[in-house]
From TrEMBL, chains A, B:
This is Prephenate dehydratase. Residues 185-258 form the ACT domain. CDD domains: ACT_CM-PDT, PBP2_PDT_1. GO terms for biological process: L-phenylalanine biosynthetic process. One of its GO terms (molecular function) is prephenate dehydratase activity. It comes from the Archaea. The lineage of its organism: Archaea, Methanobacteriati, Methanobacteriota, Stenosarchaea group, Methanomicrobia. The keyword Lyase applies. Residues 2-172 form the Prephenate dehydratase domain. Transmembrane segments: none annotated. Its EC number is 4.2.1.51.
């Protein structure tokens, strides 16, 4: 099965697709174009949805809202960042990093007070800049450092060694109902009624359904109006809960799906 | 009063500080350094907290969580993006844009199918690249286009004409209790107890306190563990609600504050 994911070569998305032995892998320039490609029937997609340090990936949340696709699996990948450079640490005069990578490595980078960090548009761009600038370093994954032929001179410079990104698989059609796993749904409250969110959460609470995540996103109908993404663990009464939610407000099922293991 | 905000010259943060007649204005390289400067007593800060298209500003949410500062005001600024270029539209072969700016102008940019968009690390960087590249454009605010001396050749290319960014003023000490306005608080649920969020929202619902926003952020204690930012409208029973929340879980008052008008 063709899998579309975020390129260029060496992104964590690309690394995950390789580890899952997806074949062929099609690298897209943006997360939006992964969604558009899956909607056009070009294959399944793999996209990052949240990181344990940086939070939700807005472009993915908006893609789930904009396209009528289904989540058919979730994957958790440990994220490690490394300092890669053609020169030893003491000779480095500038470090290139993507802003989210910088955020995830801020503690270590702050200790290098005298070395400025320049933000780039991707980890691949960090590698390219570090190669063409004398005495420069880049913050990269091991696989990106390998692809761009820059030696890793310091491993695991991320703030939190448990740094993890959750990815989801997106497909044109829903997958088979999993015995265990999660469901995701998108709630669009339409109205501004006070207490509505409380009422919606009550639907889960009274059935002891474990809500694993709630994420608000702009509805794009003006400041202060939001939609909500909810994830919850599958149990015997999830269908009944969904029907009750539908009687209260506009709700869309984004899919029920299993967890897919990630080989090292 | 000295006000610290995000630079370089021509950011929306800078434009807001100018419109509010803040003097002197100190431009900081990152939102984190605005927080650090306010915590060090160098002045008040002005930071973007959410945009009606792109959602929460993660770096600001994390700053509120990390530093013991107070929100002392909120400001709503309309955001307009424009195409600026030294050449007419039909000669443009590449457009530079910050990823968030791209996201906010995606509809118009997608219509220009044959013109690639290159992501930059800031709107200022877009201006610099557009000036040094032949036949290039940049997506900029009117004030940034003026500062970098690039003519605006097409106005208001944003997806949504109601595009608005909400900013907050942050101070070392809480402001006076406002007669009308909002309060913000940070809830750290510590435990994973099912139904806890439902119980917390009940504290507001039973007092008819209007919850205007709920935003989850990673707790940074591992994937799947979140803290919650809540905004609610001030009413007669907000103190009582806060005491009840404190009896249930760990909660921090981020301040009660008025809305500050933004001169055109």
């Amino acid at each position: 099965m063709t899998v579309l994911t975020l390129g260029p070569e060496g992104t964590f998305s690309h690394e995950l697709a390789l580890r899952l032995k997806c074949d062929p892998i099609v690298l897209e320039p943006t997360i939006h174009s992964v969604f558009a490609g899956v909607a056009a029937g070009r294959g399944d997609g793999i996209v990052p949805i949240e990181n344990s340090e940086a939070g939700a990936v807005g472009e993915t949340m908006d893609g789930l809202s904009r396209y009528s696709l289904s989540i058919t699996g979730e994957m958790y990948m440990p994220i490690h960042h490394n300092l890669a450079s053609l020169v030893p640490l003491e000779k480095i005069r500038v470090i290139y990093a993507h802003p989210q990578t910088h955020e995830q490595c801020s503690t270590w980078l702050e200790e290098l007070k005298e070395v400025p960090v320049i933000h780039t548009s991707s980890n691949a761009q960090s590698a390219i800049e570090a190669k063409k600038t004398p005495n420069a370093g880049a913050i990269l994954s091991v696989s990106a450092a390998g692809i761009y032929h820059i030696p890793v001179i310091m491993e695991h410079v991320e703030n939190n060694k448990e740094n993890t990104t959750r990815f989801v698989k997106i497909s044109k059609n829903p997958g088979p109902a999993p015995r265990a796993g999660k469901c995701s749904l998108l709630i669009d409250p339409d109205t501004d009624r006070a207490g509505l969110l409380y009422e919606l959460l009550g639907v889960f609470a009274k059935r002891k359904i474990n809500l694993t995540r709630i994420e608000s996103r702009p509805s794009k109908r003006g400041m202060g109006k939001y939609v909500f993404f909810l994830d919850y663990a599958v149990n015997g009464s999830t269908d009944e809960a969904f029907s009750e939610l539908e009687s209260i407000t506009t709700v869309r099922n984004l899919g029920c799906y299993p967890r897919i293991g990630v080989p090292p």
